[in-house]
Every structure is written in C-alpha cells, then in structure tokens.
Amino acid sequence: MGYEPQADFGTPASRASGTVTLTIDGYDVTVAAGTTVMRAAAEAGLAIPKLCATDSLKQFGSCRLCLVEIDGVRGTPASCTLPVAEGMAVRTRSDQVDRLRRNVMELYLTDHPADCTACAEGDCEVAAMAATVGLEAIRYAPGENHLCEDIDRSNPYFDFDPAKCIVCSRCVRACDEVQGTFALTIDGRGFASKVSAGLPSDDFLTSECVSCGACVQACPTGALQERTVKELGMPESATVTTCGYCGVGCTFRAEMKGEQLIRMVPWKDGKANRGHSCVKGRFAWGYANHKERILNPMVRASIDEPWREVSWEEALAHAASELKRIQATYGRLSIGGITSSRCTNEETFLVQKLVRAGFSNNNVDTCARVCHSPTGYGLKTTFGTSAGTQDFDSVDQADVVMVIGANPTDGHPVFASRLKQRLRQGAKLIVADPRRIDLVRAPHIEAAYHLPLRPGTNVAVLTAMAHVIVTEGLADEAFIRDRCDWNEYREWAEFVGDPRHSPEALAPVTLVEPDALRGAARLYATGGNAAIYYGLGVTEHSQGSSTVMAIANLAMATGNIGKPGVGVNPLRGQNNVQGSCDMGSFPHELSGYRHISDASLRRMFEDDWGVPLDPEPGLRINNMLDAAVDGVFKALYIQGEDILQSDPNTKHVAAGLAAMECVIVHDLFLNETANYAHIFLPGSTFLEKNGTFTNAERRIQPVRRVMTPLNGFEDWEVTQELANALGLGWSYTHPSQIMDEIARLTPTFAGVSFAKLDELGSVQWPCNDAMPEGTPVMHINGFVRGKGRFVVTDYIPTDEKTGPRFPLLLTTGRILSQYNVGAQTRRTANTVWHPEDLLEIHPHDAEERGLREGDWARLASRAGETTLRVTVTDRVAPGVVYTTFHHPATQANVVTTEYSDWATSCPEYKVTAVQVSPSNGPSDWQESYEALTEQSRRIAGVEAAE
C-alpha cells in the first residue's frame, strides 16, 4: 500500500451510547453524545486545523488553532474542548476565524526554525498547518529561537531539538496518559516554558523515560524525531503487521522506503495495543540487518570443525539424509523436533506436522514447555480450555487486579500501561511477588497490598487467601451452584477451611504478614470485578500446575469469571507462545489441545495428511535430552529456539546436544545451541514473512511481509523443503493455505482465514460458526468443560532446599529493554540500558558477604556456577537474590536445577538454592564456554577474508 499517515480525529472517541445531531458548515452530522466538535467535524470529513490536539490524548485546548464559531455563542471557542449539543450550528471557516488562525500560526512560525528539515520532509505539522490556514507571509522579523539549545542526542533512537518545540505539551501528555511514566514535564512559565526530561541534570537517556516512543508519536513537529527518519528520509509506503516480541501482540505500521524499514509506528486500530508500543517493538528491529545474521546454509561433520557454507539444495539433502540414516540405525523414535514460539502459527504447525508425518513419531515439543505448559494443564483441568479468559480491553472494567508472579512493566509493558491507566482511575491492586516490582509503587499508583512471599510458596499463599474467603463467608454461592460442581466445591472448601491453612498458620512458610494476606483476600472477594494476571513466577515452579489451578479456584469461588473486568489471564512471554501451543506442538496433543490417543481424531488427521500417525505420546524436551545422554536419541531439528541458553541446567542441555549425531538449528544467528549443531538453516525475521501470531488474549493477528527475506526463504518454506527432501510431497504456495488446513482440522480455528483477518484485523479463538467474529471473553454462559471444576491443591514444598552451603534463594526474570535470551535485542542499541545481567542482592546479604555495588560475585548452586556483577537493592527481601537471563556471557541457567512441575515438566527456574560470594572475574566454566563458542562459530573462508 502507498504511504498515508494514520487518520487523526483530534480527540478520543466518546463512549456514550446516545447520539447528537448538529450542523457543521451546513452539513447535518450525527455523532455520539460527548463527542467534541473537532472530532465530529473529522468524522464528517471536515478537517479543522490543529497542533496541540491528537486523538490518542485527552482534549487540551492550548494551541488555539482550532477556533470555530457557534451560532448564538459569543467568541470563538476551541473545537477540541467543546462538546457537541443537539441542534448546534458550527462554522469552521469565516473571515474572523481565518484571520485569528493566521495570527496564531504567524506567532508559531516566528519562533520556529526557517530551515526545519522536518518541515521540508513533511514530518512536521507546523508547515502543513501554515499552508492549511493560508499563511503566506510573516509580518515579524525573524529572531533567535528562544529554545535554541543543544540538541539532546542521548537516546539511541530519537533526538530532541528544543528549537523546533512549540510547547504544545503533547509529548508530556502522552508520557502521562498513554505510557504512565510521567518522565516529562514543562519547565518554566510563559515564553520561558520548555519540555524537560526529569531533573535539570537529566537528559532523555538518564531520565525516567522508558523510550516507548509515545512522545515521538505525539510530537507534531520535528522536535522529537527518529534518527532513521533524519538519516534516510520519510517513508514511501506502509504495511500493517504484528510485533515479533512479547505476548501482548502489538500491531504496527511498518513504514518503508523501498526495501528499507524506516520506522515502526504503533497502529491506532490495533486491538491489543490501541496505538501504543514499547522500546522493543517501536525501535529494536535493527537486528534484522545485523552483520552477525547468517544468510547462507552451513554444514559440518563435527562441532570441532569450522562451518562450511553450502547451497540450500545441499544443506536440505544432507539434513534429510542424516535423519534417514539415524532412524535406520537407531530406530523410528531416535529423532524429534522443537517448534518455535517466535515463528508464525503456520510455521509451527508445519514443524509438528513434519515430526508426526515425516519422522513418524510424536517427539515434538515447544518452548512453552519451559514457560507456560502449567497454564495449559491447569486451565484445561479447571475450565476446560488451555488459555486466558479475557481480552486486554477487559482490564478497563476491573475494580480489583491481582498480579502474581508477573512483572508487566518489564515483561508486557504495553499491557502494563493499560493497567496503570485503570489504577489511576481508582481500581485497587494486589501484588504477590518476592520482589518489589515497579507496580508496587510508581508515579500516581500504589498497590493496596504487596505480598512479598517466599519463592516457591505460591500455593500456600493462594490457599490462605481461599481460607479467608471460605471461612468469612465471602464465596459467591449462587455462582458456584449454578456454574460449578457443587460437591467438588464442598470438598475444596473443607480443605482450604482447615485451620492449618489460615494465613497465621502458613505465615512461617510464606513469610507474608497474616493481616496483609487477609486484607488482600477480602479485597479480591468483595472489591467488585476482580481479575488475576499471572506470569512465569506462577508457572515455573515444581507446583506450577497446582498454582494455576489454585488461581482458577479463587476466581470460581468468588464468581470472577465469565464477564468483562474479571478472569484468569496468563501473560505469555514470547510473541507466539499461545499459538505454538494451539498448533499441536506438545508431544501428546494435536492442534486444539486434543490428545493423540483419540482414534477418531487421529483418523481425521490421517485422512487429511495421507499418512498413519503414532498413537503414543512422544518425548518432551527434557526427555529428549535425557534419552540423548542415554544414547538412544540421536537427532533434533530446532526451529527458532535457543534451548542451551533458555532451558535449565545448562550443563545437562549441553551434554544432551553433544551426544547427538545430527543437530539442525534453524535460526537467524549462530546462537548458543548452534555451538553443538551440525547443520544450520538460516531463518527469516517477522518482517520477511506472511502468517499469523496468536497473543496472550487468544488474538490471532496477521503478520505481513514487508521486505524480501535476506536468506531467500520464509521459515515455512524451509520446513516444507526439508519435508519434501524426506519425500512428503507438500505443495503449499502461501501461508493462507496452511491456515486453511489448520481451520479444517481445528474446531477452535474453524472460522479463521486470511480473508477474515484482512476484513476484521484480528479475531480471538474460538472462532467458528457459533462465534464467527471470535470470542473476546470466555466462559460467559458456562465453562467449556461444562461445570467448573474445583481442585484441591495441597502445598508441597519444593525438593530444592536452602542450607548451610546454599543459604539464599535465586529467582529469575526479565527486564524491559531485553527480550528472552537476547538474541534479537542484544543486536540493537537496547544494550545501552542493559549491557549485562546483574545480580540483585539485599543490603543485609551483601554486607554479610563483603559485597558492594558493582562488585563481581560468584553465584553457585548444586548444578553449577557463574559470575556476574551485583547491584545492592531492597527490591528483594533478605535471603532472596534475583537476576535476568538475557546475556550468554552470564548463562544464568547454568545454576538452575532440573526440578520441574509435577504435571508438565516445566522447569523450576524461580527457586534455586544458591550461595553468593566475592569473585575476581569469570568462572572456569565461563572461560571454557567462551572458548568453545569462539571455536564453534568459525566459518571456513570467512576468517581468511577477515
């Protein structure tokens, strides 16, 4: 499509149900009550000049460029702050209005640089508005701009030029209203007013600014402008696509100049992000053209040898030959595959199909195994479906929000901004987390309760909350009798009501003050619409599935399910974790979470695919690695996942990979897993492919190709070529055909097609004949399984225990600027904010160990050790330490153990007994690993050329 700016109606849409009819310039216009005159005119196709107004922000009325005349009203009110009224007669043009607008615009231009390059390029509204109001000459002599200061170039992605600023406050308002960070302000008064990023000593980099881009998006001039626009010029075309980072699933306009991406602009009609973005989606896309990206297939006989670049034909033929050889030698079950939560639904579907139809087994798994597999098990058991219950818009109607085991401002920042908006409107917040995350206390918000539980005691905390709800008569009996199994509820209520489950009795276990826990339970049960949002701090435990079911129990017991503003909502980590699970990536399930042992189900797939399917579930990722160490699992195809860095107990993962005879890595870069690979198939970025992603709210969204794949193929094409090298004879020509197959075989996707997504923008599954436009809120009239099921979830302490050798508990998480294992974000300017993983340690624990801010520390567990720098903070409690896992130089997972969730084998990343002590630098393991990495990434011919 050609390039046209997104339509801007000046002020937000009214949510009123009634309508008002007025006349504007003689035309009858009917709009929602409460609409501003400016928006009413815009909706009728009548543009009113503006500078301070934009429809992503509340009306402000400072620039005075949007003046209009109203019959019977004195003066010329600003149309952006004037609500419509029945029978109102508006004139947007008259001699007086035109003269006043020219005078206003003339004053702006006297203080705006005549050589503004943004004006010349069409990226500054000042010149456009001057032309709109008919200003041809300025009567005043030009003077030195009163804000002519040094340009702030501190941010790696955009510059701030005060000379071009008209002090319209749009950037400040965007930071407040959209992002909720309150990093910007207007300093001074009158003519001395100027935008300031925090303290006088601050710039955009050192301030509280989180580089979400809302200020850049809101700025009507060239004062805040992306570097790429300044360097490459304005875009010439735009295509709407979906972000390839976290599970929020933001929609963007990829604005292009030929094959060059100029900028990613959040799409106002994106139903997941509503026109907002974070630093990753908005700016951190440069990895697509990074010099370390591998664009040619490579092979090697041994991991000791350098890589050798080969043609696609040779690489695929070699891969197929090796897979056939290994199966002929070691048996049908000796090979498997891992699907990606970064790839599209269509690509993921093909990988699991390749394993089942081409490898003739069910040895397929996905990274959701190590993050949200307990969500699938727990919610399917209690509600009947393996996904969250609400859309993100639902939070706007929540009165109480409980966030447990999640850090939305870092992991899901666009949703966090929505949540903060709701909290500033008066909703109450409960945070259950070992750390004091930002949501506990931030500008203009504060949690009503922070429950700083001991890591690993989620089930005990939730059981204690349930005890309060049951024993104090706060359960919703009518809902339970109508919607749930009453006998199961009575059994559960008797269990949680036992005195041994009171907050006081469990306090020595949870370390949570009983009064705070009782207050939180009462607030959740009685505070109105109550919603629970949770993350990996819930699932990545030995009792992950139990915790998910305990959360579901709370929601059912209080009737907080099946309507807007409530629900149980997992915040998915990667962009397509939900989709990879939906597509049948688990070894025991086909698409739609249906068990492989179902003969009639298998028959349907067999008839469609033309091959027999194995009825026995295959190996999980951890089972594959165990079997490899045991010598019976010999080959693995891995699409888009870096299991060596992301999976627990790095040494065991390395041993499993090293024991295999053929490891095929299909990715963008030579990642850590590729250290042990024998065949490398270069992948394509989300910018280079067509398909769909499914976000955390079950929203299926289009991914549209905006540039030619640098490696020559989209990822689905690579998988198809490998399948055909194995003799499967696939003939897809476009991902839409793969989606048609998914819809044909998967009831929850039965109504999904590329044509429907083009028409509606996105849909949330289930999408079928019953719900042809999707299902924003689940379980409205009943649970998918019929009656909601209460499950007794007894607290069973983890086998990972602290003691004299390892007295501290390590828990891990993410940070805003980096993403997962960092393969993408580490290859962008985001490293300016987080160049290395740090170990957070409480001042008391640091003092005991003689550690100070910035010191090197040895982090050791029963599984291994690493070193990293410490940061001393009271965000963590005494006895608890915390770090991220974004940098391979640290390899935090070398210390995590193999303990895992009892039901799904999801690793227990969040509870590892460790010791922290002073260190002089990298551990022996880190040094040997660095040497291995350097050796394994040699490419024949490249070293000589360099």
UniProtKB/TrEMBL annotation:
Chief localization: membrane
Domain 2Fe-2S ferredoxin-type, by residue range, is 18-96
Tell me the ranges covered by the 4Fe-4S Mo/W bis-MGD-type domain, including all copies: 236-292
Where does the 4Fe-4S His(Cys)3-ligated-type domain start and stop, copy by copy?
Answer: 96-134
Question: Where does the source fall among the domains of life?
Answer: Bacteria
Q: Which InterPro entries match?
A: 2Fe-2S_ferredoxin-like_sf, 2Fe-2S_ferredoxin-type, 4Fe4S_Fe-S-bd, 4Fe4S_Fe_S_CS, Asp_de-COase-like_dom_sf, Formate_Dh-H_N, Formate_DH_asu, MoPterin_dinucl-bd_dom
Which parts of the sequence belong to the 4Fe-4S ferredoxin-type domain?
156-187, 200-229
Alphabetical UniProt keywords: 2Fe-2S, 4Fe-4S, Iron, Iron-sulfur, Membrane, Metal-binding, NAD, Oxidoreductase, Repeat, Translocase
| An MF annotation (GO) of this entry | metal ion binding
Q: Which GO terms describe its biological process?
A: formate metabolic process; respiratory electron transport chain
Q: Give the subcellular location.
A: Membrane
Keyword Cytoplasm recorded: no
Gene Ontology, cellular component aspect: membrane; oxidoreductase complex
Q: Which cofactor does it need?
A: [2Fe-2S] cluster; [4Fe-4S] cluster
Pfam families referenced in this protein's UniProt entry, alphabetically: Fer2_4, Fer4_7, Molybdop_Fe4S4, Molybdopterin, Molydop_binding, NADH-G_4Fe-4S_3
| Family from the record | In the C-terminal section; belongs to the prokaryotic molybdopterin-containing oxidoreductase family. Belongs to the complex I 75 kDa subunit family.
Protein name from the UniProt record: Putative NAD-dependent formate dehydrogenase alpha subunit
Species this chain originates from: Sphingomonas changbaiensis NBRC 104936
